[in-house]
Structures are given as C-alpha cells and as structure tokens.
C-alpha cells in the first residue's frame, strides 16, 4: 500500500519509514508537520496516512486537525492517528465523523510491530482500529449512563472489541467464545441501547457512538 507519514520526531519517523519499507509498503512521503502532510496528500492521495496528534508549530492539535481535514476532503484515504496520550475529545471526534478507514493508536503500540501492521492493514481495507486503552477510557467517561449500567461484563467486553473495529469472528477468537455467542451478545447490546430497529444505519457504529456522546 502507499503510505504517508507525519511525525515530528525524526527518530520515530525514520523508524516507521524503515519498518514499512521492509514490509513491502511504499512510503510516498514522510514529513514533520500537518501542513506538509496536507500538501503531499493533495498532490497524490495515498491509501493511508499515519499522523501524530501534536506537531509543530504549537504542538497541540495540528496533526489531528490535518487528519480531520483529510477525512473531509479525501474520504477514501485511511487515517491512522498516533498519540502519546489518550486525547478523549480528539478520539471521539474521529469516531463520530466516520469509523470506516480510521484508527487511533497510542505510540507505545507501535513497539508491538504485528499489532501496528495489522491495524494499518485493517484501515487500508476500510475497517477500523482503536487502541484498547483509548476505547477503555472513552467508555469509562460515560459509565454513568443508564444503558451502560445494564450491560453485563461480557457484553462490555464485546462492545469494547466492537469499538476497536473487530468483526464478530475476531471478537470470538479474542474472547475465546463461539461466534454464535458473540452474535447473541451483540444483539443484546443493540436491544439494551434501543437500536434493534435502527434500519438504514450501522448499529455497530451507533452502539459505540451512543457511549462516546453520553
């Protein structure tokens, strides 16, 4: 796949370039700020961009704003956001915009090479990939919501994996239960959230958004 990187840490940026090249991916651009990333994408949109949240000049949200702009102008380009911390508002904004081809990982996850590459592949294929810690904190901030309190511990586990972008088959493998059991839990989650009759929408996405917005 064609990948573009935006990371102001030269060490991490060059490490990612080498890793992706060794995996057979084409790194079309590797830049140090959000404006340079937008210019590179405008010139020749890649399959996926990997972007840090905090970059020059203010080191606040330049990367995140660039990521959201890419999602708006080039919706077919996958976006994988990297952050040192769990930026709750930023992660929620990405998810509420559209979960197709979107991911949010903590930088520590990059050290887990297989997980990072798997996330990149899922995003390039139009899926989603969210760090478990990001999902845990986003769901925790809405733990006061009545619907969440109605979920069983296993249903919470299933919802956690749904929010990370896993399919039912993948959830079954991670939780060591049958796929039919996962399907029953998913349907129970939909029922408890009042989404059973949400025709015309992705109930999986609505289930996650319900918590992030509460």
Gist of the model:
The protein is of the alpha/beta class and 214 residues long. It contains eleven helices and six strands. It has helices spanning 10-22, 34-43, 62-73, 88-97, 113-124, 132-140, 146-150, 153-163, 168-175, 179-192, 203-213, and strands spanning 2-6, 26-31, 48-52, 78-83, 102-106, 128-130.
Description:
- Keywords: DNA-binding, Phosphoprotein, Transcription, Transcription regulation.
- InterPro entries: CheY-like_superfamily, Sig_transdc_resp-reg_receiver, Tscrpt_reg_LuxR_C, WalR-like.
- It holds the Pfam family Response_reg.
- With about 210 residues, the chain is of the alpha/beta class.
- The chain has a six-stranded parallel sheet with strand order 2-1-3-4-5-6, with helices on both faces.
- The longest helix has 14 residues, at about 180-190.
- It contains eleven helices and six strands.
- The model has no long low-confidence stretch (mean pLDDT about 85).
- α9 packs across α10 (about 180-190).
